Amino acid sequence: MAPGLLDLVHLTTWAVCAVIKLPQLVAVLRAGSAWGLSVSSLLLELAGLLVFLRYQIFYGYPLETYLEFPVVIAQDVILLSCIMHFSGNVRRACFYAVIYWVGWYMITLQKWIIDLAMNLCTLISAASTLVQLQHLWETKDAGQASALTWGMSVYASAARIITTLMTTKDFAVLIRFIVMLILNIWVTATILHYRKIKKTD
């Protein structure tokens, strides 16, 4: 792949991820409700993102291969705060913040810990998406879940498969993005399916 094309993939991934959670956030704020969203899914997603970011920093990978992650993490924190607010669980947010902060430092105490955490990160991120899928299947209603947000996740995962192959070639990172691409497509399709059913009712 030409360097110019690789730069374009990086840029479009950053652009997409800069606004990836905004459709979801707008939907939640407009409705004044987090119906259709799973708090457990978001907490797992946030844990997976934090581990992944820490792994990239620990191994000194090029900044352009993970620059979007701090922005996505910040958006997840804002979205989670809104959901906690609407569900009346604001106090729990402080507890989760402490757990994540301690975990951020603990996973780099030894190299084997961060390596193990990265392998578990794929499972955590996959579990996060599966929890959201299960929530959709149980309620049979997309609620405030945003197909646009999940669709952008599909693009970001696909783009990162390309950039990983062209830069770090890290197998653990590559597997994570392939798994997330498949699951993100699945969630997007499920949300669109339930939206279609709701419109025809």
From TrEMBL:
Assigned keywords, A-Z: Membrane, Transmembrane, Transmembrane helix
Keyword Transmembrane: yes
Predominant cellular place of this UniProt entry's protein: membrane
Membrane topology: Multi-pass membrane protein
Pfam families: PQ-loop
One GO cellular component, as annotated: membrane
TM ranges: 42-61, 93-110, 173-194
Membrane recorded as keyword: yes
Coiled-coil residues: none
Subcellular location: Membrane
Name by which UniProt lists this protein: PQLC3 protein
